[in-house]
Every structure is written in structure tokens, then in C-alpha cells.
């Protein structure tokens, strides 16, 4: 006769079942917390040529694959100019970040500070400073790094992004926000049609990035970036034009008008009645124009506006070189560009300017957009200046005619958008998070976008609740039925040590 197992008593079975339920509960509570509580954070500082902005991102702390949605929860604009403007006093560049960093300490829960990665990426302003004076650029980085190391976050370094990275991460952001990346693509199917191109206009550089059927990277490998995201391969065309941000193009346009060193210029890109004294040294103090400085000129010149869009357009065209192209086709300055494809999201200064001018509706024909801008440019400065524009700096106000003209000229003459393709552009500021390279940069550095599509989708809330209820009932009835079923259920769970306790019962 089989000897009775001494562990096989109602009390031990009861204890085992209770212990099993406790572990099950802990497991489920853990899953619950992972899904709905205790999010993770990441901080990115965008050190642009005109200013620095800090973005805080938040996402659910998910266990196995990083598929949780990343959202921007807070942003902070650093007071003062971009870090490249502190070349003569680098310490101040570090100090300038402190107010926003203190703000970050309040927005990220203190228990998460230590594990929150903090990145600083600098763009074209620092690229230009690095060309002009690499020692000064190093000193600025030293100062900002020292300042950020003092924060309680996990500082991961400050560096200059290449133009290619800036363009590519802007594209990742736009497509992540549009939810374009997770679309399932059959084997051998071309997924390029389903992504959105990215147009980023900064103060010192501008980027264009898109996926095109006509582009395989062979004609111009420098413009090619390959991604594998969620199981899809993307061959991205991207180019960054240094000096073609709107502030540097304004310098180039002024340099064009002042090349003979006159005491006064009559500028079609500024409103009639506008008149300001400007300094030659300040104007030519940038590698984008420094070589063109007139040999003899007075210290200052008077910048007078005459408000003529069509003449302004001609002036702006003079900053582009359309004479050389060694490829099958080019945008400008001899840079290869494949045929435009797909919808485009235009952000940063594209949005600020077109939004101010009330020209973000691209279903309006391009010709009408130009006519509206021509009317705006011919408005006298006195009228523009005195109209109520709450919170808009006078400097921006004076420049919107120029900036709008530059945007339309860059898009149509530079990138070859036609009346038809212009309607495929969306001017965007935000789609739950700000459009810009920062989100894409952080997604990449935290490995948040897997190369392969996740096997199982994240349980939605309703799915999670029904999962817990089902398991509870299943375990309860199963365990009551027999100790053997209870053992099986232990193996089904992930608690092997508990299964060992049951071993002696069988
Ligand atoms: O409210 C606004 N109106 C017009 N332009 C703006 C406004 N806010 C920012 N900008 C412009 O957007 C551009 C942002 O460029 P950023 O500082 O990112 O330079 P980068 O990307 O070339 O390094 C600058 O030209 C800045 O003047
Ligand atoms: Ca920028």
C-alpha cells in the first residue's frame, strides 16, 4: 500500500494555496504598477542657435519590450540666447540652464531623479562656433556639462548633433507622433509611402528628410540614413543646410545688399517705414558671411524697409546657388535631392512664422498664399507695429515679411515644391509632444523603438482587468479541485520555488 504523504494535509494544502495566491497577487500588482504607475522619465535639452529648451518625457515603465507610449509632460524655455552666444563668457552658458533644471527637479518625482537620463544636444549655433573657434566651443561644452552634472539626474553628456542626425531624429519624431512607424508591412512590400517627411527650419540651419521610392542612397551616400524600426526597413534621404536657418539667411541677404559697404540700404523684405541703425561688425560676425565683409565700410549702416514681396523674393533667391549639380537632380548648392514624396510635417520656425502670418492652411492655393504675403509685406511698419500682437517680440515682428518670403522661396525654388505638392505640407507645432529632433533623439538613446515589431501587444486596460479576473477564478477552482491541479498551476506560474514546496505532496 502506498504510504500516505505526511505533507498531504488540509492545512498544508490551504497554506500552499494561500501562498500561491499571494504570489499571484504580487505578480499582478507588479504588472499593474508597471503598466499604470511609476512612469519613467527622460530629459533632453535642445541647445539651438537662438535659444535652449528643455523637454521632459514620460513613459510607462514596461518590463520586457519598450513599447509604451512616450509623452512630453513639460517643457521649459531657457531665458537668454543660445549657448553658442556665451563664447566669450562660457560659465554663463552653464548658469543659464539652472532655472529650467530646478523646474525639472519639481516635475520629475524625486525617487526617479537618479535613474532619469539627461541629455544635451546642440545644433547649428554650436556647429558654427566650432568652425569659427573650436576652443571656445569646447569651453562652452565644459561649462554646460559641469552645470548639468550638478543636477540629481543621470547626465549622459552634451554634444553637437551632426546635421544628418538632426534631420533623421526630426523625421523619427514626426513619424512616431503620427503613429506611422508601427504599421505592419508585408515582406517585400514598400512601406515608404506611409511615412511623413520632416521639414525643420532653425535659426542657423534647415533640414529636409523624407523616404522616397526614387532614393536608394547610391547616388549620394552622405544623404542616406538607414533605420530598422518595428520590423520595417527605412532608407531615409536627409540633408541639413548649414547657414540656411532663417537668422543666417537674413544675414546673407543683408550681406548681399551691403557688399559695397554703403551707409544705408533700402530692403524690400522689411516694411515700408522701418528704419534701424545696424552695426557692420555684428552683421558679419558669423562664418556664414564673414568672408564677404566689405573692405571699407562705416561702423554702422541704416537698414530701411521698402516692403515689396516680389523684390524680396528675388533678393532671397540670390542666397541659393542653382548653377551647379553633378547628380541627376539637385535642390540647391549642388546638393542631391530625390523627387519629393509623401506628406510633410514642417515645424520649428516654419510653424512660428506661418502661424503668425495665418498661412498654415495649405489647402489654400500657393498663388493665394503668395498674394496674402505680398499684401502683408506692403503693410506700413507703423501699422504692423501698432496692431495688437500680444507677447510677440518687436524683432520677430519686423522680420515676419522676410521670414515668410524665405520659407516660400526655400520650399518652392529650393526644394522644388509645386502648387500641388505644397498642399501636402502640414505646419505643425505639437502632436501631443513638440515636433523637433529631441523626442527622436531620446527614443534612440534609450532604445525605446525596437528594431523588430513586438510579439505581443501591450494589454489595454480592459484586457488587463479581464486577465486578472480570469486568472483568479481559474486558480481558485483549479486549486480547490485537487492538489495535483494546484501543482500544475504552480508550474504554469513563474514561481518555481513554490512548486518545490508542493513536490512532497504528490
Ligand atoms: O515666436 C517666434 N516667432 C518667430 N520665430 C521664432 C519664434 N520662436 C522661435 N523662433 C525662431 O525659430 C528658430 C529656432 O531656431 P533654433 O534656435 O532651433 O536654431 P537651430 O535649430 O538652427 O540651431 C530661430 O530662428 C528663432 O528665431
Ligand atoms: Ca532647432
Automatic annotation (TrEMBL):
Keyword Kinase assigned: no
Residue ranges the record marks as coiled coil: none
UniProt-annotated location(s): Membrane, Caveola; Membrane
Record-annotated membrane-spanning stretches: 12-36, 485-505
Cofactor: Ca(2+); Mg(2+)
Lineage: superkingdom: Eukaryota
Keywords recorded for this protein, A-Z: ATP-binding, Calcium, Disulfide bond, Glycoprotein, Hydrolase, Magnesium, Membrane, Nucleotide-binding, Transmembrane, Transmembrane helix
Record: active site: 166 (proton acceptor)
GO molecular function, one term: ribonucleoside triphosphate phosphatase activity
Membrane topology of the entry: Multi-pass membrane protein
Protein's GO biological process: nucleoside diphosphate catabolic process
EC nos: 3.6.1.5
InterPro entries given in the database record: GDA1_CD39_NTPase
GO cellular component: a single term: caveola
Catalysis performed (reactions): IDP + H2O = IMP + phosphate + H(+); ATP + 2 H2O = AMP + 2 phosphate + 2 H(+); CTP + H2O = CDP + phosphate + H(+); a ribonucleoside 5'-triphosphate + H2O = a ribonucleoside 5'-diphosphate + phosphate + H(+)
Binding site for ATP: 203-207
Record text on subunit structure and interactions: Homodimer; disulfide-linked.
Task performed by this protein: Catalyzes the hydrolysis of both di- and triphosphate nucleotides (NDPs and NTPs) and hydrolyze NTPs to nucleotide monophosphates (NMPs) in two distinct successive phosphate-releasing steps, with NDPs as intermediates and participates in the regulation of extracellular levels of nucleotides. By hydrolyzing proinflammatory ATP and platelet-activating ADP to AMP, it blocks platelet aggregation and supports blood flow.
Protein family per UniProt: Belongs to the GDA1/CD39 NTPase family.
Protein name: Ectonucleoside triphosphate diphosphohydrolase 1
Amino acid at each position: 500500500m502506498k504510504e500516505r504523504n505526511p505533507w498531504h494535509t488540509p492545512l498544508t494544502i490551504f497554506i500552499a494555496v494561500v501562498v500561491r495566491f499571494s504570489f499571484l497577487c504580487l505578480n499582478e500588482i507588479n504588472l499593474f504598477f508597471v503598466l499604470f504607475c511609476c512612469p519613467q522619465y527622460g530629459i533632453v535639452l535642445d541647445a539651438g542657435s537662438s535659444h535652449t529648451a528643455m523637454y521632459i518625457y514620460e513613459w510607462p515603465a514596461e518590463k520586457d519590450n519598450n513599447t509604451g507610449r512616450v509623452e512630453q509632460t513639460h517643457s521649459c524655455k531657457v531665458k537668454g540666447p543660445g549657448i553658442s552666444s556665451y563664447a566669450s563668457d562660457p560659465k554663463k552658458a552653464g548658469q543659464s540652464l539652472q532655472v529650467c533644471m530646478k523646474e525639472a527637479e519639481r516635475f520629475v518625482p524625486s525617487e526617479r531623479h537618479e535613474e532619469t537620463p539627461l541629455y544635451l544636444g546642440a545644433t547649428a549655433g554650436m556647429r558654427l562656433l566650432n568652425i569659427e573657434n573650436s576652443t571656445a566651443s569646447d569651453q562652452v561644452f565644459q561649462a554646460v556639462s559641469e552645470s548639468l552634472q550638478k543636477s540629481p539626474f543621470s547626465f549622459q553628456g552634451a554634444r553637437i548633433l551632426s546635421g544628418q542626425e538632426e534631420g533623421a531624429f526630426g523625421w523619427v519624431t514626426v513619424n512616431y507622433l503620427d503613429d506611422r512607424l508601427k504599421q505592419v508591412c508585408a515582406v517585400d512590400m514598400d512601406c515608404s509611402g506611409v511615412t511623413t517627411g520632416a521639414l525643420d527650419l532653425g535659426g542657423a540651419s534647415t533640414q529636409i528628410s523624407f523616404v522616397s521610392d526614387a532614393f536608394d542612397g547610391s547616388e549620394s551616400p552622405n544623404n542616406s540614413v538607414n533605420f530598422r524600426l518595428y520590423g520595417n526597413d527605412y532608407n531615409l534621404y536627409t540633408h541639413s543646410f548649414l547657414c540656411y536657418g532663417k537668422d543666417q539667411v537674413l544675414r546673407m541677404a543683408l550681406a548681399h545688399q551691403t557688399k559695397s559697404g554703403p551707409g544705408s540700404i533700402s530692403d524690400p523684405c522689411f516694411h515700408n517705414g522701418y528704419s534701424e541703425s545696424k552695426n557692420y561688425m555684428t552683421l558679419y560676425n558669423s562664418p556664414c558671411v564673414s568672408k564677404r565683409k566689405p573692405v571699407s565700410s562705416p561702423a554702422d549702416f541704416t537698414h530701411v524697409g521698402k516692403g515689396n514681396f516680389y523684390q524680396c523674393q528675388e533678393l532671397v533667391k540670390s542666397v541659393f546657388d542653382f548653377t551647379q549639380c553633378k547628380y541627376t537632380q539637385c535642390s540647391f548648392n549642388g546638393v542631391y535631392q530625390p523627387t519629393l514624396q509623401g506628406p510633410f510635417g514642417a515645424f520649428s520656425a516654419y510653424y512660428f512664422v506661418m502661424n503668425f502670418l495665418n498661412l498654415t492652411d495649405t489647402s489654400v492655393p500657393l498663388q493665394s498664399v503668395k498674394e496674402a504675403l505680398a499684401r502683408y509685406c506692403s503693410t506700413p511698419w507703423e501699422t504692423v507695429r501698432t496692431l495688437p500682437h500680444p507677447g510677440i517680440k518687436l524683432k520677430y515682428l519686423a522680420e515676419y515679411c522676410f521670414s515668410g518670403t524665405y520659407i516660400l522661396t526655400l520650399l518652392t525654388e529650393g526644394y522644388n515644391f509645386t502648387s500641388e505638392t505644397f498642399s501636402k505640407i502640414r505646419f505643425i507645432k505639437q502632436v501631443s509632444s513638440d515636433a523637433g529632433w529631441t523626442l527622436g533623439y531620446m527614443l534612440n538613446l534609450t532604445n525605446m523603438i525596437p528594431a523588430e515589431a513586438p510579439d505581443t501587444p501591450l494589454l489595454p486596460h480592459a484586457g488587463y482587468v479581464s486577465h486578472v479576473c480570469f486568472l483568479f477564478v481559474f486558480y481558485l477552482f483549479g486549486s480547490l479541485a485537487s492538489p495535483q491541479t494546484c501543482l500544475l498551476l504552480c508550474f504554469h506560474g513563474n514561481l518555481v520555488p513554490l512548486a518545490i514546496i508542493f513536490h512532497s505532496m504528490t
